[in-house]
């Protein structure tokens, strides 16, 4: 097995282990034991040196392990994003932008922000136009429909009076 793979496996396992709640509780317990042992060692310089040296060495080593894990995670995310870009309608020019300088990234971010603002303005104008046309179509439809009164005919009272007139005998 090569050194890179061995170190990557070790770094991943260590990162998982050190990020676990049990590891945190074990560290808290060690600090408490160290603090309680202070009177036994009369708070000597050696007693202080034990915790200082231990924490410094652990911190120093963890920085490299965490950095390795972060680098691999970042590279994996970039590879996944590149794959999505290649297989979508997105611009292929975005592949590899993580290697640009900070100034170039800021410029790109600014350009994309302006493009997003322009897009939002166009979408808002389109929405307003769609609403305006729907309003115009509904008002035109109302104008073409004849107005109806009630149920579409004379009321029952009017029907009864007109029927009574037809049936009434003629006066001599």
Q: Nutshell version of this structure?
A:
By secondary structure, the protein is mainly α. Helix content is 75%, strand content 0%.
Protein architecture, described:
The relative contact order is 0.04. The chain is elongated. The model has no long low-confidence stretch (mean pLDDT 84). With 172 residues, it is an all-alpha fold. Helices cover 75% and strands 0% of the residues. The longest helix is centred in the last third of the chain and has 43 residues, at 102-144. It contains five helices and no strands. It folds into two domains: 3-98; 100-139.
> How much strand?
under 5%
Q: Work out the number of β strands.
A: 0
* Succession of helices and strands: HHHHH
Number of domains: 2
| Nearest-integer average pLDDT | 84
> CA-to-CA gap between the ends?
128 Å
Q: How many helical elements?
A: 5
**Structural class determined from secondary elements:** mainly alpha
Could you name the ranges where pLDDT drops below 50 across 5 or more consecutive residues?
A: none
Shape descriptor reads elongated
The helical percent reads over 70%
Radius of gyration: 41 Å
Please give the structural blueprint.
Elements: H1 3-18, H2 21-36, H3 45-86, H4 102-144, H5 156-167
Helix pairs in contact: 1-3
Comma- or semicolon-separated keywords:
about 0% strand, about 170 residues, single chain
């Amino acid at each position: 097995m090569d050194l890179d793979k061995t170190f990557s496996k070790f770094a991943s396992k260590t990162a998982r282990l050190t990020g676990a709640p049990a590891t945190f509780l074990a560290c808290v317990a060690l600090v408490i034991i160290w603090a309680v042992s202070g009177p036994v060692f009369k708070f000597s310089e050696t007693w202080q040196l034990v915790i200082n040296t231990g924490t410094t060495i652990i911190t120093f080593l963890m920085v490299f392990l965490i950095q390795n894990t972060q680098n691999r995670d970042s590279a994996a995310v970039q590879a996944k994003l590149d794959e999505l870009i290649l297989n979508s309608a997105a611009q292929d020019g975005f592949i590899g932008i993580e290697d640009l300088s900070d100034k170039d990234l800021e410029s790109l971010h600014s350009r994309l922000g302006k493009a997003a603002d322009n897009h939002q303005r166009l979408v808002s104008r389109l929405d307003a136009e769609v609403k305006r046309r729907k309003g115009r179509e509904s008002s035109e439809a109302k104008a073409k429909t004849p107005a109806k009164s009630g149920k579409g005919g004379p009321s029952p009272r009017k029907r009864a009076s007109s029927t009574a007139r037809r049936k009434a005998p003629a006066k001599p």
